[in-house]
Amino acid sequence: MCRILHIETATEVCSVSLAHRGKIIALRETSEEKSHASILSVYVNELLESPAMKNNHLDAVAVSMGPGSYTGLRIGVSMAKGLCYGADIPLIAISTLEAMRNGLCEYLKKKKINIPTNALFSPMIDARRKEVYMALFSSDGKIFKEVVAQVVTAETFDELFVKHPIYFFGSGAKKLSSVVVNRNAVFITDYKHSSVYLASAANEKFIKRDFVDLAYFEPFYLKDFITTTSKKNRIFPSPNV
């Protein structure tokens, strides 16, 4: 039981993985640009026909729900819904930024990098112009700042840098690295996202039966969010936002 297919198309990667009780048993993925529409169905079919699925069936599908690429999210969620409807199985939605945070923790653990207890993690996805989709997580995995569309400048994180080292990663972090110079700003440039980082959260949600409504579920586009910033563009919004 608890065999889950994971789909990640919210970022630049097109990734599909299969897990049994939270452990990855098969994976297909590519970082080829704009490949989601052409390759996603191929990867899904390959995994469903793989030896890992012999004499077995899917118990659920987990999908990266956003924020992220509008087109990528639409493709991934459409595929996930189709699989769930066809097999009459539940759909699990995982925050893309939460999955990225989980992925970075695994990355740092493999690299044997020690993290200060006051550190913050900031997964970032490139949006448009100087804007990124981002959130902040504490070192114990709790949300420090909720998901937001943020225009980044050299001063955006100044108040946080006073007390916290911040680990920036993801496609949006490149925008920040070109303008921020601070000893508490740590840029992880070789992190690569993957559907495998949905597995732990998806397994927990399956056990809790934390499923979304197939008929009404939509991706978290964050498309219409309009940022309002102070003159110095601090990360904390003004009271009238």
Topology readout:
Blueprint: E1 3-8, E2 14-20, E3 23-30, H1 36-48, E4 60-64, H2 70-87, E5 91-94, H3 96-110, E6 120-126, E7 131-138, E8 143-151, H4 158-161, E9 166-169, H5 173-177, E10 185-188, H6 199-208
Parallel strand pairs: 1-4, 4-5, 6-9, 9-10
Antiparallel strand pairs: 1-2, 2-3, 6-7, 7-8
Helix pairs in contact: 1-2
Can you tell me about this structure?
- The protein has six helices and ten strands.
- It has 241 residues and is of the alpha/beta class.
- It folds into two domains: 109 residues, 2-Layer Sandwich (Nucleotidyltransferase, domain 5), CATH 3.30.420; 92 residues, Nucleotidyltransferase, domain 5, CATH 3.30.420.
- The strands form two sheets. The protein has a five-stranded mixed sheet, with helices on both faces. Strands 8-7-6-9-10 form a five-stranded mixed sheet.
- Helix 1 packs parallel to helix 2.
- The longest helix is centred in the N-terminal third of the chain and has 18 residues.
- The radius of gyration is 18 Å and the shape is globular.
- About 3% of the residues have low confidence.
